[in-house]
Write a structure and sequence with these properties.
With 296 residues, the protein is of the alpha+beta class. It has 5 helices and 12 strands. The radius of gyration is 32 Å and the shape is elongated.
């Protein structure tokens, strides 16, 4: 009974499939049968040897389940947050993307968005990889500490660690220089619309875990590689123009120095020695109306 209780407390999730983090059908079925057999033994009077046998079978099945979990493999993927709160609250999935300034961010999954597609390639071990943006050609790198946005660089510099969570159907991502797991900052418990990808010390299943959606559409991959640089350049130009416009608008904002102008010229900041009553007034110079004027 203690063994069964401890296994139930693990809350094992053995999703069968071929995706990273999922399990082979054989391993999942062996675990399901062994656990079922162990639970059935609780309701029957069996010999000590039989109890021991079923317990050993369950332990072996759990180890087999761990061994039967799919590791990451080379390919093109969308990297999707495993936080179920996004779908619960918004009805959407959230995925990585690279912005125009070589930073790693997340937004609503759009398989047509070039910036959301990444090429993942195995490096020296079963859990180390390069992660390259198809849109920009840049590689996910590293950043010190936590709560700081993960950058991308032109060259492959830091191996990324992509490892399965044992007895779950999920993956965690970090890197060899900073092993704190990547996290969707700004998630707001599923209410967040978009945000940054950062290392964060919270290793909870919901907030710092990921799944991978493969892309095998060659045309889509080629289009992402072609359109990505153009979209990045267009975004940079758009932002520069927006900043220039804002700066130009600020240039028109100033504190008025001429505020006290009287038409009779007495105690006025502007005076004239040749006024005329037929061609405007001194106060027209500062009234902000381009249709009024003063002419001496």
């Amino acid at each position: 009974r203690l063994l069964c209780d401890s296994v139930q407390a693990l809350n094992i999730v053995a999703e069968v499939g071929t995706l990273p983090g999922q399990y082979t059908a054989e391993a999942a079925l062996a675990y399901e049968n062994a656990f079922g057999s162990a639970l059935a033994a609780l309701d029957n009077m069996l010999s000590e040897d039989e109890y021991a046998k079923r317990g050993d079978n369950l332990r072996a099945a759990i180890e087999g389940l761990k061994a039967g979990q799919n590791l990451m493999s080379d390919g093109y993927y969308y990297v999707i947050s495993a936080n179920p709160s996004y779908e619960d609250q918004q009805g959407v999935k959230k995925a990585w993307y690279v912005d125009a300034y070589s930073s790693l961010r997340w937004e609503t999954l759009n398989e047509q968005a070039p910036a959301q597609l990444f090429k993942i390639t195995k490096l020296d071990t079963d859990t180390t990889f390069s992660i390259q943006s198809v849109a920009t050609g840049e590689y996910v790198n590293t950043v010190a500490g936590q709560s700081v946005i993960v950058p991308l660089t032109a060259e492959q510099t830091t191996a990324q660690i992509i490892r399965p969570i044992p007895l779950k159907s999920l993956m965690q991502i970090a890197n060899v220089a900073n092993t704190i797991n990547y996290h969707t900052a700004g998630h707001s418990n599923g209410a967040g619309v978009s945000g940054t990808v950062v290392p964060w010390g919270d290793n909870s299943v919901e907030a710092s875990t990921w799944t991978f959606l493969p892309c095998t559409d060659e045309a889509l991959i080629a289009a992402a590689a072609e359109q990505g640089p153009k979209l990045k350049a267009a975004k940079v130009v758009s932002d520069v123009l927006a900043d220039a416009k804002a700066a130009r608008n600020i240039a028109n904002t100033y504190d008025a120095l001429l505020t006290d102008v009287k038409n009779d010229g007495v105690e006025s900041q502007i005076m004239t020695n040749a006024p005329t009553s037929k061609e405007g007034s001194l106060s027209a110079l500062i009234d902000g109306n381009i249709n009024t004027y003063f002419h001496s």
